[in-house]
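User: Sequence for Glutamyl-tRNA(Gln) amidotransferase subunit A, mitochondrial below. Tokens please.
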Amino acid sequence: CLKNIAKYNQYTNAFVDLTQPDHIRSQAAEATRRWESEAAKSAVDGAVMGYKMNFCTSDLRTTCSSAMLENFKAPYTATAIELLEKAGVIMGGKTNMDEFGMGSHNVYSHAGPARNPFKIIDRSPDETKELEARSAGGSSGGSAAAVASNMCFAALGSDTGGSVRLPASYCGVVGFKPSYGRISRWGLVAYASSLDTVGTLTKTVDDAQTIYDIMAKEDPKDSTCLTERQRKAIADTINPIDLTKFSDQEVKTKPLLGVRVGIPQEFNVAELAPATKDLWRRGIQALKDAGAVVIPVSLPNTKLAVGAYFTLATAEASSNLQRYDGIRYGHQSDKNDEKDALYTHTRMEGFGKEVKRRILLGTYVLTSGSFDNFFLRAQKIRQMVRNDFDRVFSRRNAITGSCGNLVEDFENDNSTATRVHALLTPVAVSTAPKLKDVIGDQIDPVDAFLDDIFTIPASLAGIPSMSVPFGTCTKDGFPMGLQVMSQYGDEEMVFKVAKVIE
Ligand code: GLN
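Assistant: Structure tokens for Glutamyl-tRNA(Gln) amidotransferase subunit A, mitochondrial:
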């Protein structure tokens, strides 16, 4: 890891703050001794991980890539990281991100943009001289770039509307967003609390599963984190796949027998690059070859999801970001000339352009004049998006008990043959764009919102979703991922399907 950090960090700008190499070495030596005496703390004892800059750690800064928190050192460590530390994981450093998680290309960062390492790895500077830098995706761009360039075994990201899955697709790694409430958000700086999840970036689906298992625990410090009792109740609702009608031989060779996977027709949007469509087709074939039944399904409210997401996420952000007032912690302006001036100057100086834009938008949708028209309407759409999913999944939603609006059909088992265990879609419309096309005023901020069209529905519904690398684009040779989603609480199904296509 240290060697690769020395080799690739300057170009990728993935790690913003690094743990002292000697400290990493001595922790690694201790872990080695534990392994040698068969006393390893876990399967990942001694592994080096990167943590996104919005996770609080009592070592290193927690800047959220913002001038507002430029010198902020948290007094405590996030629960997810504490659990990893208990398992022996070593912190390699803190990774670059879009300011407070707002963005899709890691270009809204006080630390400068992260760069996609894909064509850089193992090539000489001469070979890469002409290469135009590409987006690493965002907002967890630093975490994805760090894993893709082997600077760490895995990294934590946060996913509010796709921030783990989009960078994973662009950089060619696995990005996993568990169900909302699976992993404690204590110590993860809030962006939009009803959507924020702790996610992972790894090389393989197995690695994602290993670190997910370590972190997915009850935490009294986060009231939205599932209790052990709730976790058990959710597990009890998952019926095993019925394999009785298949021969032993078939079961052994085809890992997805009995699994039905849906292809949402509404994801076949006009903007989809032909190479992405082709990839999606190949993914479908791979699932069929593994024994899955693949059927078209409809999620009719998909096209409304982006508008609803940016209404709700900005509203929640405008509320969450009120705490940066220049008084309690973080940046404080030295201009304090008249009433309210300290607050105004602090926020003017501390927040970047995109964050300001979102605070204004969020404040606007919460004003009395627009609350009903925007905020409430967006909440209704969010419910419609959830219903869409509940209507296509063969399992009821373990939290709400909902099965869409077809209770009777569901009870009579009439519709189960047309319902599915998982969904397969693209993650992004194309491969990573060139940085110069997404930086500065090159891109209309509202157009940029469309980068998240495929990832946002799972965020609104709180369901688990994974971006799995699935080959490279025939045109530019950059990687692309496919997205696997399943019903709330059914992470195991996501892992099972993802393993077939990775
Ligand atoms: N790109 C989306 C946004 O800007 C998602 C970000 C995220 O998941 N943190 O809101």
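Residues 2-229 form a domain with the Amidase signature (AS) enzymes fold (CATH 3.90.1300.10).
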